[in-house]
Amino acid sequence: MSTLVKTHFATPSYLNGFFNKDLFPEFNTPAFSGSVPAVNVVESNEGFRIEVAAPGLQKSDFTLNLEKNQLTISAQKEQKSEENEEKYTRREFKYTSFQRTFTLPNSVDAEKVVANYSEGILSIALPKREEAKEKPARQIEIA
Questions:
Q1: Distances (CA, A) of 140 to 130, 134, 137, 143
Q2: CATH code for the domain in which residue 42 is found
Q3: pLDDT of 8-26, one tens digit each?
């Protein structure tokens, strides 16, 4: 029969608080696991929509660039925190950033691309050119 022996060391409470804190809890968030957020791409008759899951960011953290047929989505956020407990100061600087580039089909009307950010989702609408939209079937009269 074995006996489990637990040993507890007495440490001052400020050291417990310092060493027992998660240094970077943001790395455990699903949106930034692996440093690139999840992306959905949806096509409809009217165009394409790209949705980027990026909770915790703000609209001002994003940059969208469209050059030739390359759409680049990037974000950068800097967070600073500082804690003072008695004689100890703990400072942390954290930078969250990502960049993703998509090659757009020639059917996209680059002049009409729009984006918005709401409730942690960056949504980019990429409308198709009129000539690229699927036309409904029609009957052709024989002359």
A1: 21, 17, 10, 9
A2: 2.60.40.790
A3: 444 444 444 434 444 444 4
